[in-house]
């Protein structure tokens, strides 16, 4: 065939977590009894009143393009939500609705960063962050975190780096993959360093409502309360809070000029977010929030269950994650040992060994820049968690 793909394609990695989900689906299709801890979405269905709002939207003819930045009534509902839940004042000109927060994050990078720019990403990172930056022709600069400290930034590492061409950073608290939540003082420090260096912060807060022990505080709220005045783009999603991953609705809130630039890029890529999802989104944000509380209560129970079980495994330690639906235990003690006669060099090998011998799908931490760790999603029911960890236990006992 006579074509040549653009270099851009080779610069990025395929979505690694989606690959793990595909492996699980293929094994199931072959009739194998597989337990999947790689899932990155709530196992609950979208709450009924939100589904009904989507159906009504179609019946009422909301099946056409909407305003590029999002329906006015949806953007107003978002402003009300940001005021009510997060204590931040915005107007609709500060809001851009996108086809999932993934698009929000990606176009934020494209609007803000370009060739020659560096963007800080904290390791362990969600697999897509470095790729959003690559797609914007910029370069990620990885900064370590301290696992004992909720995976907060390792400021010594940050300040030891050559920061000359850095233009911004992406942060994600609560985090995928660690579930860790940064304390307010760490966020204040990051905001201040960003202000001194004129960096823009992209704050991915898609797990804001899945916070189990403390109150969640948005980075922009901290920015305003402390009068730091750093430029922050807050990116949010309906996917995790309302179990709406397939509806593809996310949004960004930030300074008008940046939001306008992002809308310009989005307008030439996908026009607008889907109209039915936006109507359902209005119901999600303005309707009863009982569904969110119920899902959160279920996730918290499962978190306590899985963390307890993981810590009972031989040579495994797991911190209690404050949010999201991931546990991120350390299995580093198994590296260098053998499973099924094969040397386990890293967590890719350990995950593969667990998959082969226990039919349990996990996500190796090496894929998130976190050697030694493995991500277990607990977006699955308690019985499956018990059975899955029991199988992992038998697999680990076979390692010599
Ligand atoms: C950290 C993080 N940010 C953003 C997203 C994207 O969410 P959305 O479904 O709104 O695109 C995800 C989804 O897995 C995520 O884990």
Characteristic terms for this protein:
three-stranded antiparallel β-sheet, 400 residues, 14 helices, Aspartate Aminotransferase, domain 2, alpha/beta, binds pyridoxal-5'-phosphate, eight-stranded mixed β-sheet, single chain, Aspartate Aminotransferase, domain 1
CATH class of the largest domain: Alpha Beta
Q: Give me the Rg, rounded.
A: 21 Å
Q: Assess the beta-strand content as a share of residues.
A: 5-15%
Count up the helices. Answer: 14
Strand-pairing-aware structural class: alpha/beta
Q: Enumerate the strands of the largest sheet in spatial order, edge to edge or round the barrel.
A: 2-9-8-7-6-3-4-5
- Low-pLDDT sequence parts: none
Roughly what percent helix?
A: 40-55%
Shape: globular
Order of helices and strands: HHEHHEHEHEEHEHEHEEHHHEEEHEEEH
Bound molecules: pyridoxal-5'-phosphate
Mind explaining what this structure looks like?
The chain has 400 residues and is α/β, with parallel strands linked by helices. The protein folds into two domains: 7-45 and 291-397, Aspartate Aminotransferase, domain 1 (Alpha-Beta Complex), CATH 3.90.1150.10; 48-286, 3-Layer(aba) Sandwich (Aspartate Aminotransferase, domain 2), CATH 3.40.640.10. Helices cover 42% and strands 15% of the residues. The strands form four sheets. The protein has an eight-stranded mixed sheet with strand order 2-9-8-7-6-3-4-5, sandwiched between helices. Strands 10-15-14 form a three-stranded antiparallel sheet. β3, α6 and β4 form a beta-alpha-beta unit. The mean pLDDT is 95. The structure holds pyridoxal-5'-phosphate. Pyridoxal-5'-phosphate binds next to α5.
